[in-house]
Specification:
By secondary structure, the protein is α+β, with helices and mostly antiparallel strands. It folds into two domains: about 150 residues, DNA methylase specificity domains (Adenine-n6-DNA-methyltransferase TaqI, Chain A, domain 2), CATH 3.90.220; about 200 residues, DNA methylase specificity domains (Adenine-n6-DNA-methyltransferase TaqI, Chain A, domain 2). It is built from ten helices and 25 strands. It has a four-stranded antiparallel β-sheet with strand order 2-8-5-6, with helices on one face. A four-stranded antiparallel β-sheet has the order 15-22-19-20, covered by helices on one side. A hairpin with a 7-residue loop joins strand 5 and strand 6. Helix 2 crosses helix 4 and helix 4 runs antiparallel to helix 10. The longest helix has about 40 residues. It starts with a strand and ends in an 18-residue tail after the last helix. About 35% of the residues are buried. About 5% of the residues have low confidence.
Length: about 425
């Protein structure tokens, strides 16, 4: 069995600091005010929705501590057990209910500690020290330095960190590639169907239409003229187990890599009855539209979607489904709607202030859609399909599952790597 020793965590870091107990004035740009919402359950930092600090105020907010590369930030109140490492190039300050430790690399490997926080032993320590309040739970920061950690020798820590980091680096690299591919699809859409620089456009004649001059052979139609709208309905009898199904309501961006997740990158899954599953299943000819909140974002039923995720995709009551005759039309309409979100054109169909809602019925009946010829849509669908990164998503899913199996066994010492000849990158401990 791997030799380990238990010490107070305060012995392996050079400092611990909590964030301010106030919130800065809003700023449109500037350094980041790092809050709990920016730290995912699986340790990834999410900067899609951030609060900024003005450059003029920044020095005041980092008077106590300025987060730097290699620091481990964590939540100590409200939503507990959120941990992340500060990446290179980060510039910002700790938000409310956030703290950080600065590992002493001569005593413990910082990246090992980061992974250790996701192990069962540390989670038990947090559970035993959680103070349950009437409004929020918290851990006592003053006692944090005394929390015990059970760790192997420093060389072994670095080997474990190197193994797990290799998986995370591959996952992040694949995510970057998926984002690039998604941008390629969006740029292709804009080039062909917004700027009208499509194959053959040089010799194309333009004619008048209700929305202005359009290429000859293209048509203008309300969305409802080419699709069927489904506006909700009952879930059916819920089940505690059953077909694994991910809600399209979890979608947080244009592409699938932004699906909301629980834990280590797995989509939010809801078990539903088989009858409800049949009614809610998203097909390649479908487009699912968010109907409330960040409304208007759309997801189409990619061919290969279920294979790449490993889940059946269903749409929830917060979404509306449009069903078309062909997958190529669904691909195109999804891009149209997402472009409307990007440009703000979707706002004319939104209602409400506190929680915006999308009047999908008005959208599909009133919005005039520029519909290209079937051959051009098929051409776009083929190119977009090649760029949707199904293989990369499937690969990431396998990587996450393997890492999730390895992490508790490595952290607990069940798998002893102390004698293995593992090359430890220079930054594996940072």
């Amino acid at each position: 069995m791997l030799e380990r020793h238990t010490i107070p965590i305060g012995e392996v870091y050079s400092g611990m600091y909590d964030g301010p107990h106030a919130t800065p004035n809003p700023s449109e740009s500037g350094p980041i005010f790092l809050g709990i919402k920016n730290v995912g359950e699986s340790g990834q930092l999410d900067f899609s929705d951030v609060r900024h600090i003005s450059e003029e105020e920044y020095s005041r907010w980092v008077r106590r501590i300025e987060p730097k590369y290699g620091d481990i930030v964590f939540s100590y109140e409200a939503t507990l057990n959120r941990y992340a490492m500060i990446p290179k190039g980060f510039r910002g300050c700790l938000g409310r209910r956030m703290a950080l430790i600065r590992p002493d690399e001569s005593k413990a490997c910082g990246r090992f500690l980061y992974y250790y926080f996701y192990g069962h032993e540390w989670r038990n320590v947090i559970a035993q020290n959680t103070l349950v309040g009437s409004t929020v739970d918290r851990i006592p920061i003053a006692k944090f330095p005394d929390f015990p950690v059970n760790i192997p020798s420093l060389p072994t820590q670095r080997k474990i960190a190197a193994i797990l980091s290799a998986y995370d680096d591959l996952i992040e690299n694949n995510l970057r590639r998926i984002r690039i591919l998604a941008d390629m699809v969006q740029n292709l859409y804009r080039e062909w169907f917004v700027k009208l620089r499509f194959p053959g456009s040089e010799t194309c004649h333009f004619v008048d239409s209700p929305i202005g001059r359009i290429p000859e052979g293209w048509t203008v139609t309300p969305i409802v003229g080419i699709g069927e709208l489904t506006v909700g309905g009952d879930w059916g009898a819920g089940e505690s187990s059953g077909p694994d199904s991910v809600q399209a309501a979890c979608l947080r961006g244009v592409d699938l890599h932004n699906l909301q997740t629980t834990g280590e990158g797995e989509p939010v899954v809801r078990w539903v009855s088989k009858s409800s599953l049949a009614k809610r299943c998203v097909l390649p000819t479908d487009v699912v539209v968010e109907g409330s909140g960040e409304c208007g974002r759309s997801l189409h039923g990619y061919r290969g979607l279920e294979d790449s995720l490993g889940y059946t995709v269903i749409y929830s009551n917060f979404c509306k489904r449009l069903r078309f005759g062909k997958p190529a039309i669904a691909q195109y309409v999804a891009q149209v709607l997402n472009e409307m979100v990007e440009t703000g054109a979707i706002r004319q169909y939104r209602t409400g202030t506190a929680i915006p809602n999308l009047n999908v019925t008005a959208l599909v009946e009133k919005h005039l859609l520029l519909l290209p010829p079937e051959e051009l849509l098929a051409q776009f669908d083929e190119l977009a399909g090649l760029a949707e990164g199904f293989r990369l998503r499937g690969h990431n899913r396998s990587l996450r599952r393997t890492r999730d199996l390895l992490l508790p066994r490595l952290i607990s010492g069940e798998l002893d790597v102390s004698e293995l000849d593992i090359a430890v990158p220079e930054e594996a401990g940072a």
